[in-house]
Amino acid sequence: MEVGSAEINEWYTQKQVAELLGVSKATVYHYAKQGKIRKIADPHRLHREARYYKEEVDRLASEREQYPTGMRPSEVAKQLGLSVQSIYKYIKDRTIKAVEVPFGDERTNYVISKEAFLEAKELFQSLEFERVRKNEYYDSNYDIALFQYFQSQDSTAARVMKDEELNWGFYLPYYQKWVEYNEGIEKYGLEPCYSIHADSFDYKGYVHLQIPKGEDILYPFIDFIYETWGIENMGIREQEQSVYISMKAGEIPLSNSIPFSLSQLLPFIQEGTVEIAGDFLIVRSAYRKTNLELPIKMLDKVKELAEQENITMSQWVEKVIHQALQIEES
Q1: Which of 151, 220, 249, 266 could form an SS bridge with 285, CB 3.0 to 4.6 Å?
Q2: Which residues pair with residue 275 across a beta bridge?
Q3: How many other C-beta atoms can be found within 10 angstroms of the C-beta atom of residue 237?
Q4: What number of CA atoms fall less than 13 Å from residue 114's CA on the CB side?
Q5: What is the pLDDT of residues 290-329, one digit of tens each?
Q6: pLDDT in tens, 238-286
Q7: Phi-psi region at 278: left, alpha or beta (left = phi > 0; alpha = psi -120 to 50)
């Protein structure tokens, strides 16, 4: 770096300090307030810019060279398409590996190595593939949802489906053909048989189902959850041989009988539970959030063991409890 007169003087300007340390001028100001470097007094303001003792700045720069290098959380957030707050959450639960480094105003900052970033990228690309996106099953332009049931006044039935080019329209079973949306509405007079919207549930996890195409329960179940749960609390993905459905955990009163039996549905639940209690349909996630108060030394050991296995602390605790329960049952 070129520091100009600082090479012969015993000081750096604030701009030079910022460039040398790779921080903002505001952080340089914080460093001085914290006593990490000293600002040269200039009561008569003879110099246009604040100056700092060269020896102390050089010492701090030498210390900073020992810090690990890598990406900042904000850079990782931008690369992964997530919020910075989410990145900090994932760092905290060890989903993303990061190294703590000192920061200008005594807060802790983090550095994510290239290897840790690539691991996180691979993980989140996998999760992104599994997570159903709203535009997969809902078209906001027409306000229609995948497999939603429509009917005309002369009882022509139809279900919302996409063609091979992913255009939205209707499949007419009677005519055994697909028509684009406007033709279905204008020529065949199709109208939705129910609303697909509901108030959003508080987040308590999800229940996941996979129903093979051709099963009698598939369309009655889809119609039921569209009408009761609403698109705000669910997701649907069409697969080659089946339909994947995720539902937010929650409960609703049953004003009418459901168009399927629970015994029909149970074989297709992959995670979580669905049950009827009294006049309520209750959908529960397989996971419950809990708080465990443990000694700090124990938590540190759990963190260490989880890091050795390259898993989160929650995953490590779950594994150990599962092993203990298996031993107890045997």
Answers
A1: 249
A2: 282
A3: 17
A4: 1
A5: 677 888 888 888 888 877 776 777 777 877 776 777 554 4
A6: 988 899 999 999 999 987 788 888 999 999 998 889 998 888 999 998 7
A7: left
